Here is the input.
Amino acid sequence: MNEPATTVLNAREPLIFELSKPGRHAGTQFPPPAAGTAEIPAHLRRAAPPLLPAVSELQAVRHYTRLSQMNFSIDTHFYPLGSCTMKYNPKACNTYAMLPEFLGRHPLGPEPQGFLACMFELQEMLQEITGMQGVSLTPMAGAQGEFAGVAMIRAYHRARNDLQRTEIIVPQAAHGTNPATAAMCGCTVKEIPCDANGDVDIAALKAAVGPATAAIMLTNPSTLGVFEHKIAEVARIVHEAGGLLYYDGANLNAILGKVRPGDMGFDVIHMNLHKTFSTPHGGGGPGSGAVGVGARLLPFLPIPIVGKEGTRFRWLDERDLPQSIGRLSGFMGNAGVNLRAYIYMRLLGREGMVRVAEFAALNANYLLTRLQAAGFEAAYPNRRASHEFIVTLRRENRLYQVTAMDVAKRLLDYGLHAPTTYFPLLVPECLLIEPTETEAKEDLDRFCDAMIMIRREMQEDPEKLAAAPHTMPVRRLDDVRAAKQLDLAWKPAA
Amino acid sequence: MAFIPHTGDDIAQMLEVIGARTIEDLFDEIPPALRARALALPPAMGEMEVGRLLTERAALDGRPLNFIGAGAYEHHIPAPVWAIATRGEFYSAYTPYQAEASQGTLQLIYEYQSMMCGLTGMEVSNASLYDGASALAEACLMAVRANRASNSRRILLPRAVNPTYGQVARTIAGNQDIVFEHVDYDRASGRTLLESVESRAGEDITALVVQQPNFFGCLEEVDELTDWAHRHKILLIAVVNPVSLALLKPPGQWGGGVEGKHGADIVCGEGQPLGVPLSAGGPYFGFMATRMQYVRQMPGRIVGRTVDTEGRPGFSLTLQAREQHIRRSKATSNICTNQGLMVTAATIYLSLLGAEGLARVAQASLQRTADLVDALCRIGGIKTAFGAPRFHEAVLLLDRPAAPVLAALARRGILGGLDLADRYPELGHALLVCATETKLGADIDLYAAALAEIMHPARAAA
Here is the structure.
């Protein structure tokens, strides 16, 4: 592998406001002038038009196309971002979710049988995959799914008049959304450590549970990239203490068809449909955070849910589920995202679903073994990788003063998106690497080759790493200035 | 194999490198007792078969002529909007944490924030929340953090605010002991009157919510409500329709000023009207804007413009110390994933329409609704419910229950509006209707003729 070239494509694109000229417009997009007399009283009208750009249609198209070209994406680059499951988003999912009948459907019209049939089947398939008793598709992202889960747990304890259970236990390595969700639900958070093998510290768990325990929130495989060996014991301890088990589905991709959260003893799970079921990440969203529950939490599921009566589908609401935690969205969640997940699942079917975990694991373990052979240190060398794994650069940091951030930025120069860096925080100088099942062996080899090149650069030219990236539209950005001298919106020159 | 690129040789070579005999060996850390049986799922389908299935399902639902609004509005969406938003570089990118490899998304969000500040008249906007309803819930939680003069966690929520927004706010904020108290609307005008809040003067209240236009489509007297709130150290949360802001006074300018303070404190709403399809209710996006003084209390991602190590301008996520991945249980919200792709669409939409085009859309919608109301009220047995000036929705009162009438219209391929019987039983047989610029005169005539036949069959026969 050769050192990357240093030419920069699309080095700078002006702001759309800088392209704007009064009087210019995309006229074909305007409706005909209203020929009537409907008027708004003067004191409720705005005095001056809003500050929006005035550009031609081509200017807008070219500007946003050029901006798109300044992004890395799955469609253009290997994107091994740990904990994010950046696998191929099949084009069919988008094409068929965007059929005009689906896009034109008003959410408050008569219940659309074709669309609801898809949603009902999606609920059933997710229920089967997770080993749960019921599913609601309404949460709009993973964090909202977590919210729904913890809110259901609170509602369950309240319904039993067990009012003191407001403590949520999370492992130190948990995603930040776990403690933030607990707080949003009015709970307090108790963090417990992990042992040297990355498993939950059982002694610490035993000491933490008690009459105030509402639940434990776990990801399995954990955020450390390893399967939680002692999950059955964890479940027993928490259940015996009167608490429930919450499964954070961030890493569900690793275990599809191999082991089901319901069978592990979990009472509630949220799924990130934008990870495991390959709906797009969209540069930050939308996601979908469907929740599944065991029998105890069924009455509390968020509404609406799709029900079936005879051959007709209908929305179940508060009249059907009077104990529901309620509504989480204006209508019924991210319906179009759920439709994409449905299409993905039909494409894979029962054969394909199991292969997801198998090839995600094959790719992760292959990449881990190759990187170890190249001299990189695994954070948990005695463990199998799940669908992801952690490399720690603490040795390289000591020897060459390079950081995980330097390596991440240098990978961009090699045309590879960086792995997740500095998460989980308890592993120093870490890279959390998740290749996903849709990458070919050649792409994994290319990543290894780049890491080997970067390892050589650490020894021969550490300044080059410290100054990376060299081929992006910008160099490293001044984040301190961004936060201190806030510039959050464009203003015209005075 | 669906989307799996591995050949038999690849698998053999990779297993050899790993030192495993079979792929199954890679799962040997899972306790055998927990292993799943074969999944009961339907068999795999090819793209052709899936395409056919979805096309059939879509056809079942048809393409009715829609006169429902109630929080989701059918507008023309320019072809470039989704042609560009579904480019893989936007569609399949992650949250822009690696700023150097995400300048496209980051600059677009900065432009979006600028446009939302322009529309709302506020100083700062975030990069989106999930939808309008959940944005109001977040706004209420934010108000509790921002209003240091109040300890009550009491929020005044007019009944003229979209009732579903109230339900969602209760679900999300209720676990933090926030209390929502109703404020009634005036039966004659359809507005939230100053008199109806004045009785609360002197009480410890955290925030007052005002929706403009309100759920009935009526225009509230926002200036006097804003000034009243500020006189009593109550924060004002504005819920607005972004298309209406092309014509209406922006929330940042509401009120005549109380001790130099004017304008709403937090502005939020549903972004769907800006280039996002109805799509059975989502994905849409919530927007939120506020004063600079409250920026550290705002939930959600924010993009800032800064410089790189060579002094060139560039963009990055900023003020992340508010967010869950840094602050954990002390974060302003648990939100992580937002509605980025919808923001991409809205930014392209606003660039194509500009201030002039958006005003044309708003004015045409206003006119179409006025035409619709006139046409329907000529039928007989229908009158308008409220006297306040409207934007692009209206409540009509029928001389009979709306549900069977709507069902008869649906059989003719017309969605005639939203029956308000469950939400506002006190109004009698009330129907909320909406027409946007997408409804032509002929569409309105069709609706009026169908409704006349349904309500007065004898007259139609004669």
Observations:
- Chain A touches chain B through 199 residues (CB under 8 Å).
- Residues 92-348 of chain A form a domain with the Aspartate Aminotransferase; domain 2 fold (CATH 3.40.640.10).
- Chain A has a mean pLDDT of 96.
